Amino acid sequence: MEDFDARQALETFLRNRRAGTFFPKEWEGSLLLEEAYAVQLALVQHHALEGRRQVGWKVGLTARPIQEQFSVHEPGFGFLLDNGLHSSGDAIPHDSLIGPRFENELCVTMGTDLAGPGATRADAEAAIATVAPAFELVETRGDFTGHLEMVVPDNLQQKGVILGTPIRLRDAPDLDTVRLTVRINGKIVDIATGDAVLGHPVNSVTWLANRLAEYGKSLAAGDLVMTGSFTRQYAISPGDTIRSEFAGVGAVEASFP
After folding, report:
1. What is the structure's pLDDT at 147?
2. Considering the entire predicted model, what is its pTM?
3. 185: helix, coil or strand?
4. pLDDT at residue 2, as a whole number
5. Any idea which architecture 55-255 has in CATH?
6. Which of 49, 122, 156, 168 could form a disulfide with 78 if both were Cys (CB 3.0 to 4.6 A apart)?
7. Over the range 94-121, which residues count as b (16 or more CB within 10 Å of their CB) and which as e?
8. What would the pLDDT profile of 235-251 be if each residue is shown by its tens digit?
9. Which residues, given as ranges, of the chain have pLDDT below 50?
10. Are the C-beta atoms of 130 and 223 separated by less than 8 Å?
């Protein structure tokens, strides 16, 4: 990594993206995971220069069903931008998206800063202010099956988040016991509990704080953190309405005309 130029690699990434290729062929088999994260963090700076504001982070690939779906057996992180925020009930045009899918998550808001290394779950719980039901909206911009390093520079497929009404963490049930019911067009397609997310959704926040410390980053008060899907990814077809209910926390829904 000593001789790796993240900004130069980012330029290659951006040039390919403008041409419609999100996973450049020249990176296949040659990009190390730590290099991939360096490119991703350079991408954050690129967005800032273009006037977009980072509003938080996402943790992905946290539950066994989604790890098995993509043959990736460790979590990853990405970032959230202000232009990707949506509210529950929003209608998002399907044709504005690339192969859209959704993940069922809890989104927390940090009440105080949290920095690693050495952050514990107790530290994370003390730092979290609120929790909300959420969808992560992702785009299938390429196939990264078995290769986490290929999707990290593309920000782990991130497109946006759809947020329900937050409640205070202290008013929520234990997040590992939260029961999720997922519906597409009114039909139940999945049921899961919060312990699918690294054993407890707050473990995602702890993992993230410690992982970010390796890059000189930390979680700040006000940051949103998408803690990872309870379930596998589900495809969104034109006209779909999706709804997920997190018992004791709330519900979130969206439509895709």
Report:
1. 86
2. 0.96
3. coil
4. 66
5. Alpha-Beta Complex (3.90)
6. 156
7. eeebeebbbbbbbbbbbbeebbbeebee
8. 999 999 999 999 999 99
9. none
10. no
Assigned token pair, 153: 């520079």
For CA atoms 162, 164, 167, 170, the dihedral sign is: negative
Q: Where are the domains of the chain?
A: 55-255
Question: Tell me, what amino acid is at 118?
Answer: G
**Identity of residue 197:** V
Token code pair at residue 130 = 């609120």
What tokens does 6 get?
A: 């993240």
Q: What whole-number distance in Å separates Cα of residue 13 and Cα of residue 39?
A: 9
Contact 229, 103 (CB under 8 A): yes
Task: Please spell the DSSP secondary structure of 73-96, one letter per residue.
Answer: -S-EEEEEEGGGEEETT-B--GGG
Q: Is the dihedral of CA 197, 194, 208, 26 positive or negative?
A: positive
- The four Cα atoms 158, 160, 163, 168 give a dihedral, to 10 degrees, of 50
